[in-house]
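As practice, study what follows.
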Amino acid sequence: MSDNFNPFEFKQQYQQQKASVSLPKGAKNLLITTGIIVGLLIVLIIVLSTFTFMVGEREQVVVTEFDKIVRIIVDDANSPTMLALKENPKYAGIRIQTGKGLFFKTPFIQSAQHYTNMLLTYDTAIEEVFTKDKKKILLDNNAQWRIENPALFLSSIGTQSAAHQRIDEYIYSRMREEIGKIEAKQLVADKVYVNKMLFSVRDYINSQMNPYGISVVDIRIKRTEYPEETKPSIYEQMRSERQAVATQYRADGQKQARTILAEANKNATIIEAQAYQTAEKTKGEGDGEALRIYAEAYNTDTEFYAFWRTLQAYSKIIDKDTTIFISPDSELAKYLFNPKLAN
């Protein structure tokens, strides 16, 4: 400490600094009044929260009194689950209300439990299942569900995590049973059968979860995978089966081709026979007509007919490169050596 330090002077300086930063009396009163108002508002909010509560658009509420359910606020008081609740003697004294907004409760005695009315998604853990042909498959599912009856949900399960655990147990217990009835290739490739199987699993789960106030809307297989050690054998089996199917398709195609070709050849033979028959008939009719015309011509002018037939013979056997030797007394030469006959 310095030898020049004077306690009296230090005290005076401190009092002067304190006086310089002190607020006016009016400002002090304003701060005190504001603090009192804020404090009263906080107390009022705390008091109001003890006998009021809010129900949001996406909420449903269960009001309990010393852990006993006395009232529920839902979207539809006449839904099947609510009507079933009214008929249940265990919940006969519960008051069912509808609506959103501000509601009242008995302070310090009653409490409100809020639950969502929206659709919830549960993504299951990956599990191993075995098919009918003893193939191990990794299965990953998800389930869409909602809280249909908050009173049953609170009294039987209470939390979403507990509900997810129950759903998971029922999904895989049923899935293992159903998948054990089919082969691996059907699980992977037959989407129609898989969808029917999932509907069956969903209905089974609902029959088990309805007493808990839960409704499962949909179940889907998100992923199916073979373990790494079994993939080569599975793929080889699938390839062999596809090859067998392709071979069968080719055999069926070749059989159909042979059938079509035989039918075509048969039809072609029939058409050719009919055409030949028609041609021969037409040819016979033409020959007959020609003979009739020849006969008429012969009967009309015998000499002219003979002359005309001889000319036709000339045109067929004589050309510029042909040399023939004919006897003068030949029938073929009579018009060549006797021009008068041609006149």
